[in-house]
Amino acid sequence: MDDQLKHSMFYEVLFPPAKPKPQRAGDLRLRQTLRYMPDLDQRLAEVPWVVFDFETTGLKASKHEIVEIGAIKYINNKKCGQYSQLINPENGVTWATTRITGLTSADLQDQPRLCEVIDNFLQFIKGSVLVAHNAEFDASFLRTACDKHEWDFYCPIYCTLKMARQLLPDLERRTLDMLAQHYGLSFASRHRSIGDAEVTAQVFSSMLNLDSLKLCDLEAWRVRR
């Protein structure tokens, strides 16, 4: 290129400099870590534990979204708090979600997005081990959400479905409904997160002696990555 043109006043008009790509707010966020690895010789009563449940728009964490979070925290095996939050999904509510949970787009349109609540939920479960029914499902959504929103996440997650398969071999099925029926439990609200978490906690305490239980006793029922 002619040096005279390169240094002329018209150069930037003819060849405007490339504009820097705008950064999204999320690009500036430092990755955070939530990691809890308790001593497996501790009794369950000595550590906080949280029963949690997600309602979602489908079965695959890679393509579907969380629409409700429910979690109940226990310390000394006694309930000490709960977290409950509806979430407005980025891609709307499917008919299957409405059929199962009763939640509609109208119910969720004024609710926060997952990016607005994930930090609060992670702070609620911080320093706790987790329990869920069919925990591999909920764990996959939790880990996907953490990856998407810049969290490195690890803590033990235990599955009451795995427990039931080993401890209740004579039951024909071990869905949460069947386990509730087996133990004479009732749902305040089925397929809503807090209602399901409450029953999961009662199933957990019915299957095991929580007061004498050590974390190492739960290892066979821990969800593996």
Q: Could you say which structural class the secondary elements and strand pairing correspond to?
A: alpha/beta
The CATH architecture assignment turns out to be 2-Layer Sandwich
Poorly predicted ranges: 5-11, 18-27
Summed up, the domain count is 1
Assembly state (oligomeric): single chain
- Outline type: globular
Radius of gyration using CA atoms only: 23 Å
Mean pLDDT: 90
Number of strands: 7
The number of distinct helices, counting runs of at least 4 residues, comes to 9
Order of helices and strands: HHEEEEHHHEHEEHHH
Strand numbers in spatial order across the main sheet: 4-3-2-5-7
Looking at the structure, the CATH topology is Nucleotidyltransferase, domain 5
Q: What is the share of helical residues? A: 25-40%
CATH superfamily: Ribonuclease H-like superfamily/Ribonuclease H
Distance between the termini: 57 Å
Strand content: 15-25%
Summarize the main sheet: 5 strands, mixed
